[in-house]
Amino acid sequence: MMKYVKNNILLLLVLPLLFWSCSNTKKAQKHSASSPNQKIKLDFALNEKGAPYYTLDFKDKKLIDTSYLGFKTKEFDLIEGFDIVETSTDTKDETWKPVWGQQAEVRNHYQELGIKLKDKKGHLLNITFRVFDEGLGFRYEFPAQSGLDSLIILDEITQFKMTDDHTAFWNLGCWDNDEYWYTQSKLSEIDSSRANYNSLDTWMSIPTSTAASLPLTLRTAEDVHLTFHEAALVDFTGHILALDPQTLTLKTSLAPAPDGTKASIALPAKTPWRTIQIGASATELLATYYLLENLNEPNQIKNTDWIKPTKYAGIWWEMHVGKATWDKASGMHGATTKNAKRYIDFCAKYGIPAFLVEGWNTGWEVWTAPERATAFDFTTPYEDFDIREVVRYGKEKGVSLIGHHETSAAVARYNERIDTALAFYNEVGVSAVKTGYVGSIIPKGYLHKGQWMVNHYNTVMKKMANAKIMLDVHEPIYPTGLCRTYPNLMSAEGMCGQEFNAWSSGNPITHNVTLPFMRNLIGPMDFTPGVFDVAFKNSKNERVDNGNFFMKEGNNRVKSTLVQQLALYVVFYSPLQMLADLPENYEEHPDALKFIQEVAVDWDKTVYLNAKVGEYASIARKAKGSPNWFLGSITGDSKQDFTFKLDFLEEGKTYTVTIYKDAEDADWEKNPTAYAIESKDVKAGDVLKIKLARGGGSAVSFIAK
Ligand code: NOJ
Ligand code: CA
Predict the structure, then answer these.
(1) Are residues 290 and 306 in the same domain?
(2) 406 alpha carbon, closest ligand
(3) pLDDT tens across 456-510, in order?
(4) Which CATH number do you get for residue 116?
(5) pLDDT digits (tens, 9 = 90+) for 653-678
(6) What pLDDT, on the 0 to 100 scale, is given for residue 321?
(7) DSSP run (H or E) holding 23
(8) Could you give the number of structural domains in the chain?
(9) Do residues 37 and 130 both lie within one domain?
(10) Which pLDDT tens digit goes with each residue over 332-367?
(11) Is residue 371 one of the residues assigned to a domain?
């Protein structure tokens, strides 16, 4: 008995000591997860104040140094004073099939580390890390907790502390608009006051000059490439990355609601994933494309037969180059029944399955407040456009109409009208819709990247899915891989597309060779390639005020060769690819048009052949369900001599290869439309040598014999 009591007293004395040391080591203790190939290692721990942080190593070298995690909410801070309540690890290795994509199968392979935290007041916060060979994703979870059913987020303090002043490819940090040109500088020099951007923007929300929009791509001295973005942005607000140039630390800067708060969430809630795509080279970075979709939920649309990747032409470029207008009052209305039939005939002749018509519905006469708020009803055609007859004629010729909903960012109005508008398109027989959100959001104060708009874009995506309509969003919130869950979300803009060549001083020569590592690395991109009249010989090329928001300046042009425009159909990824130019401009070059007729828009395999951000990119893709391959290669302001080993072709097969190349004396500035077409037979393992002119490209088809 005595012995028992004695032992118990001893225990009572020792237990608190034991517990104390346990909880302290628990705090300092690192919890880790590594990528399946062991190249990327994540460590998580709490500092002495109980503040959560992580670090990231790539090939045994620190890539992200001590970076803190947490939130400020209206109710309390979730920043320090935490204990780790529980940790867990898991691995997943599965393969799934996208409805459409850059490849027929996607491997989702990662190690997961789960952390459950509790602070002194009992508030709970969970963090889940997933480490892939392609990079890192992590998200926060606000679990259900007693006495708390919602939170108002005031700030997210997620950090990314870089270990060196890397080369950065960035877009100025704007909460509202992504239509700016990229700038290359040192990371520490990210500053919107030195950004290379167009001055045409009418909507801007720049909280601080030293911030970058998503995605942001960095290149280290060892050629490691990292792209910061986010995945599965659902019922939360978007963000930009604010830089502290002294410590080289990036921090999430959430887009606000009109009242200045950032996000309102109902518990339990999960944030989107904060992501870093990592490649040992620019070429490897391109191969990380599916990290974002892997972090999204599987497809929710049961029957997907109606979702069909397609090429499309349209009544569009003629408005951008000042030959026609969206509105009718100008007397230059583009969207007439007659003109639509001309496009249908063109599509039918060249096997293009769809065409877009913009400016078919009334309301384009007003672009200023207060009329802008209610300008469009989305169902009333101008009297010179018989939409039913156009759809009927298209059907007869096997060409379907892509509808257009320019909202002029009057989102409250669109919310009111969308059900009626979709019912109208269903009734008329429209299977895809391009939406647009030009200008500052109405009601005032909301931002394109704010939570209210995130929810709007997602609601529209779901409504379109219910109506069996494919969607292409212009002036979108940047894509975050949601097309895995809703594969009717085909494509989006969210960058300076081809249109900037029509009515601004034009995309810089480095633009097309930067997009694959920025905007196109995070999702399909409706750039609208394929302008053949690159120097605008057939346009008036003078300043035209076409009555809308587009002002065509003098001396505009596309800064590329014609052949580069062909190559973009392979280099730029989108399951919707436009033939942007006018029918008459294509008909001047039927031999070059042949490549666009043949090129696929949906793929079984993608192989990244060579790449350098801002300089060049070459990609080969195998068409979905076909033995044929296509190769696209583009260069910026320098000529290139590329040798491609054709080891991606199927062993033992012979292919007729047709090479569309810049002529010997081609040059984007002096001789952009000079090209040559050569045909021969090749086999797997053969070598193809191709010269690219300055601002040029090459487009190659491999048709299996
Ligand atoms: C901007 C879009 O990006 C463009 O493609 C469209 O033609 C105009 N808005 C008009 O809706
Ligand atoms: Ca746009």
Answers:
(1) no
(2) 1
(3) 999 999 999 999 999 999 999 999 999 999 999 999 999 999 999 988 788 999 9
(4) 2.70.98.10
(5) 999 999 999 999 999 999 999 999 99
(6) 87
(7) helix 2-28
(8) 2
(9) yes
(10) 999 999 999 999 999 999 999 999 999 999 999 988
(11) yes
Mean predicted confidence (pLDDT) in 559-586: 98
Which residue lies with its CA nearest to atom 3 of ligand 1? Answer: 474
- pLDDT confidence band for 541 (50 / 70 / 90): low
Distance 497 CA to ligand 2 centre (A): 7
Q: How would you label 651-676 residue by residue, b for 16+ Cβ within 10 Å and e otherwise?
A: eeeebebbbbbbbeebbbeebbbbbe
Helix spans in 507-621 (H) = 562-571, 583-587, 590-598
With 90 as the cut, is the pLDDT of residue 568 above it?
Answer: yes
Beta strands in 97-182 (DSSP E): 106-119, 124-132, 135-142, 150-156, 159-162, 167-170
Residue 201 lies in a domain: yes
Instruction: From the CA of 528, give the closest atom in ligand 1.
Output: 5
CA 550, 471, 511, 355: dihedral to nearest 10 degrees?
Answer: -70
DSSP state, residue 520: G
**Ligand that comes closest to the CA of residue 472:** 1
Query: 493: Cβ below 6 Å to ligand 1?
Result: yes
- Domain end point (choices 460, 494, 528): 494
Q: How far is the CA of 377 from the centre of ligand 2 (A)?
A: 21
- Pairing verdict, β 61-68 and 159-162: antiparallel
Q: Give the pairing type, strands 82-96 and 225-231.
A: unpaired
In the predicted model, is pLDDT for residue 552 greater than 70? no
> From ligand 2's centre to the CA of 177, what distance in Å?
9
Whether residue 650 has pLDDT greater than 90: yes
Q: Return d(Cα 485, Cα 482) in angstroms, integer.
A: 5
State the catalytic residues: 499
